[in-house]
Amino acid sequence: MIGVLERSRLIVTVGTGGVGKTTIAAALGIAAARRGRRALVLTIDPARALAGALGLTGLAAEGEPVPAAALTAAGLHLPVPLDAAMLDQRAAWDAFVRRHAPTPAHAAALLGNRIYQALSTSFAGSTEYMALEEMSRHVDSGRYDLVIVDTPPAAHALDFVSAPDRIAPLVERGVVAALARPAGAAGALARFVARRIEGAAGGRTLGELATFFAALKALVDAAAARARHARAMLRAPGTAFVLVAAPRASLLAETGALAAQLAAAAAPLAAVIVNRAQPPVDAALAVAPTLATIADAAARTWLAERWDDAVAATAAERAALARLAEVVPASLPVVAVTELPRDLQPLRALGAISDQLATTPSVTAIHA
Amino acid sequence: MARALHVVTGKGGVGKSTVAAALAIGLAGTGRRVLAIELGHAAGLCRTLATRPMAPGAIAPVLTTPGLAVAYFDGAVALAEYLTRRMRLGRLGRAVMAHPLYRGFVAAAPGVQALLAMGKIRDELVLQRLGHGPRWDALVVDAGASGHALEHLRMPAAAAATFTGGLVHREAEVNARLLADPAVTAVHVVATPEDLPIAEATQVIATLRALGLPIGALFVNQCRPAPPAGVDAMIAALGARGDAPGAALAAVARRAAIAAAEQEAALVGLPAAAAVTRLPRRWLADDAALARSLAPAVLAAAEAAP
Question: Which pTM was predicted?
Answer without folding.
Answer: 0.81
